[in-house]
């Protein structure tokens, strides 16, 4: 695997592990996977422990490290919950960068305890900035705010009352359209969540399409009036937290595989060694980049490597485990299905490769 950094950097020691959190989320993983329960109780448990807003906002100087450790530990137990935790944290990060107002302060307080779910639909913005499509929501300026119309095809944490940050295009009659970032709440007039589709995994994450039909975002809900600059500022945090949930899955599957490699399965020894090196490289770069802001290409490469490593690890775990890994109810098969989400989660594998070639 191509990496831009030495895998043996000493900073790896600073990515904290929380075994008790892993154990807790492992217990609820089967229900959250199938959708028998959803991710909100887990978010509230983390909120009670004060783990949702540690180091908020990311200072790029190591303040995010404890949170990355939490995300990784949750993902070792349950990727659905770790993905939802990423969405919650991004909601917090976006609002923490918004102009302060009583409305923003109220949302931040409720998001930090997990009482309210947070979500972000930045995928279309990131795609547009890479020259891949156009932001689908149009914002019409009116006195005191913006009127929003359009459909966002995928957003997670779409629970009743959730705060959703989304990009929108302000059409200018003369000149170039502007891009803004605004927030709405699920349940507001004109904000509709389509029926939740049945997914291969992550069914408890309330992921679906969000339709805006004349929804209102007042001035307090204007997170940024300069979307490209906002995305440039948030990109490293966004990708580091995603890389942390990939890393959690990779670590868990690698350990599960390692525990079963003996006797005839020793033929997988070399694969395991390569995997361990890749996992160590991902974790070292996670810790390093959280402390010292990386070049954009370095964090893009990390996110790609983290997702690929998780996929390889889940596959090795399955191959080593044998028939038991094919039982639908087992953790191995869940992790294998979860790993298939990583190449299609924005930025997709294709999008990351595209950015690295540009
Ligand atoms: C369960 C679920 C939850 C989600 N939650 C959220 C969320 O909370 N927030 C959010 O913002 N998004 C969310 N998404 C959306 C997700 O982030 C992606 O935007 C989406 O899955 C990408 O799918 P698409 O259909 O838009 O594919 P496209 O982006 O159209 O890509 C289709 C295919 O083309 C490839 N591709 C794309 N661009 C290039 C390129 N330039 N060169 C080569 N290949 C390319 C991709 O890798 C993919 O294989 C979620 C998606 C799912 C499935």
From TrEMBL:
InterPro entries: Acyl-CoA_Oxase/DH_mid-dom_sf (IPR046373), AcylCoA_DH/oxidase_NM_dom_sf (IPR009100)
SUPFAM superfamilies with a match to the protein in the record: Acyl-CoA dehydrogenase NM domain-like
Gene3D superfamilies the record matches: Butyryl-CoA Dehydrogenase, subunit A, domain 2
Superkingdom: Bacteria
Name listed for the protein in its UniProt record: Acyl-CoA/acyl-ACP dehydrogenase
